[in-house]
Amino acid sequence: MIRKITFLILSFLLAIIACEDKVDPNYKIIFEPGELNFGKVEANQSASQKIRIKNSEESTGAFEGNVVIMDSPKFTMDFSGVITLQQNESKEIYITFRPTGVEQSSAKLVVSNDEDSFHEIYIYGEGAAPVSFTYLPNKLDFGLVKEGDNKDLDLTITNSASSGFDLEISFSISSSEFSVVDGTSSHVVTPGQSVVIPIRYSPTSTSLNARITINHNSTVQSNPLSVILSGIMDKTTEINNLIIEGWEIFESGNYNTSILKFQEAIFMAALHTTYDNIHAEALVGRGWALTFSRNYGNGHIDFSKALESYNTSISDNARLDALAGKAISARLIHDYTSSIQAAIDLLDLKAAYQFSHKTSVDYKDVRMALIQSYFSTGQFAKSAAEMDILDPPNAPHSDDPATLLAAIQALSGSL
Q1: Is residue 299, in this structure, part of any structural domain at all?
Q2: Do 176 and 246 have their domain in common?
Q3: CA angle, residues 164, 166, 171, in degrees to nearest 5
Q4: What's the DSSP call for residue 349?
Q5: Residues 152, 48 share a domain
Q6: In 3D, which of 210, 211, 163, 171 has the Cα closest to residue 189?
């Protein structure tokens, strides 16, 4: 009996001791970092960050549990299933944020198990609109700049007020004749703000086309973008000198050499529309030199081009000379309709016209071209009426073709 009682007492004591040694599981899970903030991420783009989950050495043993993201589908991770961590062991997980619009998002990363161990950190992110910007102008035309001088034009770049980020731009220029005045090749522009970039042209060659290449951080515009640059070394003085030489040589009667001077001026003037005025004058000069060289067809082409292609740019004097030349040369190549119209236009503008570079040519030659062109097209009454104006002592002139022709021939021989 004593043995039995003693056994029972010992068993009871052992049970008490065993209960006192038993310790409930306890886990301390550490997140590094303790909070995850993605800041701004462009809508429909993604960004990832790393987070470390560690089972602290203060835990009572190995941890086994689930890892989930709660409250927002815009956050995802590269891990699924059950995570097992020994004491002081850690695991890296990548969290990805992909916003679908311009909005604030938040979620929780939760690590838990069946033993009521629950650990969490907060995750934040903001969806933002992409960078959108404008640049003006898309072409910088510096026009004419004299050698040794320079000219500045501004390129303005504006980050849209709706952009969710700063605009980051950098640029380069394809020619050393163009440069950024302050030497700055990159800018950061906040939403709603603009930056003005002064570009300088310092010509060293006759004519130049180049470009500014703009690199940027916008995902909704082509990258890179480019701005066309154009400029021309001002050759106005040189072209005018060639034209002056051409007329001097023309007036001396050396028509073939004057043609060459006018051709050189035409070639240089064709480089830029700013030269249109003197381009027209050079064409008129070559037209007259060709006409006096009996190359009436090409002379007529030059007069017509000066009047038609440079109608708004041609000077008043050059217009009169071109109309006179066209009236005369057109009659000589039997383009009577063209001759009639040019003669009428000239005589309406200046009835007493005289060609300043060859004073022997004047309104009488133009009216005679009109008379002959009317006659050649069978308009005998109009031809006779013009003869009355040109030869008033013998007016009125008969419109009989034979009589009229004899009168025309007699008068033209005396002009």
Answers
A1: yes
A2: no
A3: 135
A4: H
A5: no
A6: 163
Residue 145, amino acid: V
Reported as a single tens digit per residue, the pLDDT across 69-111 is 999 999 999 998 899 999 999 999 999 999 999 999 999 999 9
Helix axes of 316-332 and 296-309: crossing angle, nearest 10 degrees: 140
Which domain CATH number covers 316?
Answer: 1.25.40.10
Mapping DSSP to helix (H, G, I), strand (E, B) and coil, where does residue 52 land? strand
Q: Is residue 6 part of a domain?
A: no
φ, ψ of residue 254 in degrees (nearest 5): -90, 80
CB distance 65 to 112 below 8 Å: yes
Residues 378 and 270 in one domain: yes
Number of domains in the chain: 3
Strand blocks (E) in 98-222: 104-112, 118-128, 133-136, 139-145, 151-159, 167-173, 178-180, 186-189, 194-201, 207-216
Task: Say if residue 99 is in the same domain as residue 147.
Answer: no
For residues 259-276, one letter each, b for 16 or more C-beta atoms within 10 angstroms of the residue's C-beta and e for the rest, the string is bbbbbbbbebbebbebbb
Length of the chain: 415
Q: Per residue in 125-161, pLDDT tens?
A: 999 999 999 999 999 999 889 989 999 999 999 999 9
- 379 is in which domain, residue-wise? 236-414
Phi/psi for 396 (5° steps) reads: -80, 145
pTM across the whole model: 0.65
